[in-house]
Amino acid sequence: MRRTGGCRCGAVRYTLEAEPVATRLCWCRDCQYWSNGNAAVNIVVPRAAVSHAGALRQWDSRAASGRHMRRSFCGDCGTQVFSESLENVELMVIRVGTLDDPADVQPTMVIWTASAPPWARIDPALQAFPGQPS
Ligand SMILES: [Zn+2]
Ligand SMILES: [Zn+2]
Question: Which whole number is the average pLDDT over 16-20?
Fold first, then answer.
């Protein structure tokens, strides 16, 4: 199935031509910043299956996993669209909120529950990991 998406203002648009390898909620501290306090919902996809148009700004940091993460944002509206580990050239991450239809993916996993705040609601139906799954 072909999926499309983009940032809030429309300056960045992308196409995804492969099924997600994983769909998961992430409670890592980094995701809490970009999701305004809640868990982020992400799909992990093959990099080769993603093409995009429009200018992205990038910000690199070291994640709690120890990986070097590069996060790509729309410079106009600030939406974070993609992230990628610089140690993993095969896969990248797309923020589910940027899909044109976020309803057609289904989270199966919740990760970094150890850094979730006490009020977090963690769905017991999801496979849970305290940190990064191996
Ligand atoms: Zn934008
Ligand atoms: Zn995260």
Answer: 97
